[in-house]
Amino acid sequence: MRVLVNLLVAVGMLVVVPVGLRLLADPAVGLARRLWPYGAAAGAVSLWLPRGTVATALATGYAMAAAVLCAYAISRPVRPRREWPAEAAVLTALIGPAVAASALVAERSGYHLFGFELGVLTLTVAHFHFAGFAAALIAGLQTHVRPGPAADAAALTVPAGTLLVLLGYFTAEWVELAGALVLTAGMWTAGWLTWRHARTRSLDRLTATLLGGSAVVLAGSMVLAVSWALGEATGLPHPSLAWMAATHGVANALGFALCGMVGWRRAGALV
Hints:
Structural class: mainly alpha
InterPro entries: YndJ-like (IPR025450)
Keywords: Membrane, Transmembrane, Transmembrane helix
Radius of gyration: 17 Å
Helix content: over 70%
Pfam families: YndJ (PF14158)
Number of strands: 0
Largest sheet: none
Protein name: YndJ-like protein
Distance between the termini: 35 Å
Order of helices and strands: HHHHHHHHH
């Protein structure tokens, strides 16, 4: 499982985040865009080294790039009230890599951050690239591409669900289940809006296929997420973490996040 998760995280660092940053219309994000490849390369290399000083130092380089994203997030001007849902989603996306970086630095140093097992920290790194960053950014994008109540709901529920899942790590499994349900509702809404946009005649075939495929994959992958969270909260039979990484993880990382980001980039969408 470790090799698979490392590959998915590397895709998130090296491809998903930099493509996602190209979807931000604000010119002030330019510094973060330019610095990100260096931090991402350091973070990706750290994944494959034995735990220790060198791996921790490289992971810290990734954390510095993530910190630049956080600084940019803080510097963003206050938006008009009508843009608050989109801004909540964008800020969640910008902060997501910093949460991933904290888990990565701890895991690479062998430190049980907040008492979590190292394997859980590894999965946290993956989660906050694809749910924390990609899903939130795509949800926020919907408010510009297909504005309306559904887009606003997606832009608010994806960050809320992500926050609840994180809170569930520290409190109770039923909180994590609630977060999974809220996150799934938001991601399904974003997926539905993406599917509708993919069917418009203004897109070329490849772009439409990428966006439509990401929406279809998302619909199935989040069923797995809910089934796992439900099993954890109730004790009912549910997939193992290794099985979840091989199914839900691969689907979300490659089918949803990677295809979705590339598709939206090809479509020229900006948030």
